Amino acid sequence: MTFRIEQKLLIDTSRLIDFKNHLADKNVKQIYQRRRIKSLYFENNNFEMYNDSIEGLTPRKKIRLRTYPGTKDLNQYLEVKISSVEGRFKTRSIVNEDKCNTLKTKGILDSQYGLCKACLYVVYDREYFEEDDVRISIDSNINCMSHQKKIMQKDRGSIVEIKTTVRKDLDKLTSDFPFQQIRYSKYCNAVEKTQLR
């Protein structure tokens, strides 16, 4: 199990080109082509995952089904993103169509949060970059909608995620990217935009 640290930067879409120029100046290389990501998040009736995330409590989780529409990757992935005192890590497994349909209709029984039902979708475009052991992703065209109402809500900003191992000096990591650092969760933002809370 490899723990990682993350920093998130909020970048207005109008300044996205500035950030990409900043990456080019630092000789940061794009490692994958842009692709679409669609995540279906699960939550219990009390929205405890949302509340724990807002409060910054640990340990906490996010549970989602993830797909990559319009790509050659036709798999559906069940992912559990865990934030603990030691750091963050993610588990991931491929699930077949029957299993996905069962999860969507009956939910997921989690040891920490109990029965979690399909809650909302978050869909966005992601670009991938890398510098040494630092992975940088840019998420743009972020949209969300509740699982039931299917009413799309658009986010006007772009989110940059900077991920590295816990061995990396955090102060140097953040000083390398002179843009606004924030605490941000696409899931929590989607809960608020879709007025599920």
Description:
This protein has 197 residues and is α+β, with helices and mostly antiparallel strands. Helix content is 21%, strand content 48%. It is built from five helices and eleven strands, in the order E-H-E-H-E-E-E-H-E-E-E-E-E-H-E-H. A hairpin with a 3-residue loop joins strand 6 (108-110) and strand 7 (114-131).
Task: From the structure above, extract its key features.
mRNA Triphosphatase Cet1, Chain A, 11-stranded antiparallel beta sheet, alpha+beta, 11 strands, 197 residues
What's this entry about, in short?
With 197 residues, the protein is of the alpha+beta class.
Topology:
Blueprint: E1 4-12, H1 16-25, E2 29-43, H2 48-55, E3 60-67, E4 76-83, E5 88-95, H3 97-106, E6 108-110, E7 114-131, E8 134-146, E9 153-154, E10 157-165, H4 170-175, E11 181-182, H5 186-193
Antiparallel strand pairs: 1-10, 1-11, 2-3, 2-7, 3-4, 4-5, 6-7, 7-8, 8-9, 8-10
